[in-house]
Amino acid sequence: MNKMIEIQNLKKIYDQNEVLKDINATVEKGQVICVIGPSGSGKSTFIRCLNLLEKPSAGKVVFDGVNLAHIDDKQLNALREKMGMVFQGFNLFPNMNVLENIKLAPMKVKGVAEAEAEKTALELLAKVGLADKAQQFPTSLSGGQQQRVAIARALAMDPEVMLFDEPTSALDPEMVGEVLKIMQDLAQDGMTMVVVTHEMGFAKEVADEIWFMADGYLQEKGTPQEVFENPQSDRAKDFLAKVL
Ligand code: ADP
Ligand code: MG
């Protein structure tokens, strides 16, 4: 057992709205976790609490042995470098070509030399199947291609864990597969991943653990087989009956 992220009694309240009530979970190094659950159940809020894009109202998140409640701004930047994040929207910089998009953070944030940043960027582009798109601008790419660039950009920081929040939800159906394939490759390479997704086929095949979120709690945690084939709670049974 090699704990990477520990979440204890995590709570998040917006005004009066208690979105996360009491979340407890552990992500081990190399694990792929898929977080599933109804819309509005707090999945995005949860994943954003892991890298402090949202500040937990109570409880703790411990990453690599460091309690995130106690870190300063400098440590926060270091934390963000170690946690790559990919969102539903692709969020590429529109005024930069693909190569520049990928090179920027390693150069600016980590002080990597341009030649090295470029070499890494080109390798990552090859990995996501877009070696020939280095000089293109984001708007000239399809949604699936843009999302693959976004994944390459996150990987350029050499993160310890990748957080995905519904990375394929904004894509036309025919582009979903190419993005999931890249994520599957990443998982096979041993990347630690937390993936919020509605892609149950992907979750079944790739996840080590499924976490089912509803009503502010992780109501079920287990292997895909346990959660999909033998859900315990009515809430999970209900949800799965609709999506499977
Ligand atoms: P999911 O990702 O599972 O669809 P979210 O985490 O986006 O769920 O949202 C859970 C609940 O928290 C919703 O009721 C939503 O309206 C509320 N919420 C999310 N973000 C904010 C915010 N920044 N301010 C206030 N309420 C929010
Ligand atoms: Mg969401």
UniProtKB/TrEMBL annotation:
Protein name: Amino acid ABC transporter, ATP-binding protein
Annotated Gene3D superfamilies: P-loop containing nucleotide triphosphate hydrolases
InterPro entries: AAA+_ATPase, ABC_ATPase_HisP-typ, ABC_transporter-like_ATP-bd, ABC_transporter-like_CS, MetN_ABC_transporter-like, P-loop_NTPase
Sequence similarity: Belongs to the ABC transporter superfamily.
Main localization, broad class: membrane
Superkingdom, taxonomy of origin: Bacteria
Membrane topology: Peripheral membrane protein
UniProt cross-references to Pfam families, sorted A to Z: ABC_tran (PF00005)
Subcellular localization(s) per the UniProt record: Cell membrane
Keyword terms of this UniProt record: Amino-acid transport, ATP-binding, Cell membrane, Membrane, Nucleotide-binding, Transport
Gene Ontology CC: plasma membrane
GO molecular function: ABC-type amino acid transporter activity; ATP binding; ATP hydrolysis activity
Boundaries of every ABC transporter domain copy: 5-240
